[in-house]
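Q: Give me a protein?
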Amino acid sequence: MSGREEAAAAAATEEAEALRRLHGARAQSAYDRAVAACRYAGVGQDAAEVVPTGPVGRAANALRLSAESLAALTMAAPDPAADARCARNAAATAALAAQVAATRDDADVTRSVMPSATASAAALRAALAASQAAALAAGGGALGRDAALNASAEEAERHAVVMARAAGWLKVNTTTG
């Protein structure tokens, strides 16, 4: 391998590692939001079903799968496409969890400590937007490498964290985001 080829290979590896950190941080943040929303809604991983039949089972199952995906992320070599898909899947899990948490808020309007329905709806919209942005960053020709789509997904994730905190799903002192 020539010096130029070695330099190109090193640059590609460095870029893949930087993208791994970017996608991995976004995946972890989305997973933390999902865990918090599920906790808020009283859904544990023990509610996971082999064939989920409702939103609670789907959210719990997605949470379990996201945890496995995050664990596998650290075991494989950096792959921007796979890493972006992991972040996309974690964001989709967080969106499912947000739907369950928002439904709980809608059904439990008598709780005196419940955040407003507006905050809950805003958190759900932000979670859905973060999931869509993560899907765009991972999909099509981007394959996790498009800087603009990655930046958009990062911003959407940060906004989803803020909205989850405002809804009371994510503790203010949590370091996610």
The radius of gyration is 18 Å. The mean pLDDT is 89.
